[in-house]
Amino acid sequence: MKLNSLSRTHQLVLGALMGAINVIFALVSSYLFAFSLLIMLFLPLASIIVAINIELKYYPVYLLGTLALALVLNLGNIDNTLFFLLPILTSGLAFGLLIKYNIPDIIILLVVSGINLLTTLITIPIINLIYDINFLAVFATFIGFNNLEYGALVLPSILTLLAVMQTLITLVIVTQDAALFRLEINTNYWPYVNLVNLVFSAQLCVISLFFVKIGLALLFIVILLMLYQIIHLFKKHLNLAWSTLLAAIILAIVGIAIFENYTPFPFYFGIIFAFIPVVISDVLWLYISRKKDKEQDEGTI
Questions:
Q1: Which of 3, 28, 121, 205 has a CA-to-CA distance to 264 between 20 and 30 Å?
Q2: Residue 226 and residue 276: Cα distance in Å, rounded?
Q3: Rounded Cα gap, residues 161 and 163, in angstroms
Q4: What's this model's pTM, rounded to 2 decimal places?
Q5: Same structural domain for residues 211 and 168?
Q6: Judgement on whether residues 262 and 175 belong to the same structural domain of the protein
Q7: Domain around 43
């Protein structure tokens, strides 16, 4: 919620209040795992409220103060504080900061998801060191992967999915209730999505040669961006959108067949073939829309 300009004291009070809320929910989630999932999805809202209402210089005070209090009050479950609460705090602050500067929603989704995932990955070695365990193996077993080799393969993708879903749900909530929170969310289409997706696709092709697990996680990001582009097309040009979706599905099937029979890579990497019609359609639509804008400007003159 965007409040009126707050004094230094009010900013610190707001940070302390939201920090206390974070700590309370973190304590409860230590004993109720199902509640932890709800916290991962909705608790970032507290940090978003803090981020859009306090000055940047107070962010570390809020982050470190909340984290320290949670660690002190929950010494028996340090792993819960690090694995759940820390990513929530960092991603929530990043989310609010990007909203404050009117950054497009797709960039918010990518950046905040990346920060969330990176923070999670940083906490894992710390947890391993404290408890002398392999946290990823324990986590894979906990979520039902009895085959640890397969669990290790898909776990980076699962962590990526969790980070993206948390950010996406928060983004949907904030966007739908923007008036309630007194916020303005930039939902305009970002014209450089193609370029970003091309970069991710290139990274996927290279990294998959050496690290299949990371490649699988990148594939998920590429699919997410393709869906974003197709959804945008449905809003603007229905026939082009349906044609793009159909072509993407056909090429994905062809790609899967090629990868399954003619390459040493997992078959699902063939989905990247679907990127081709999406790129073409996106460029075509940008060309059409800019041409229309130019014609309208000339007509006005």
A1: 121
A2: 10
A3: 5
A4: 0.81
A5: no
A6: no
A7: 8-181
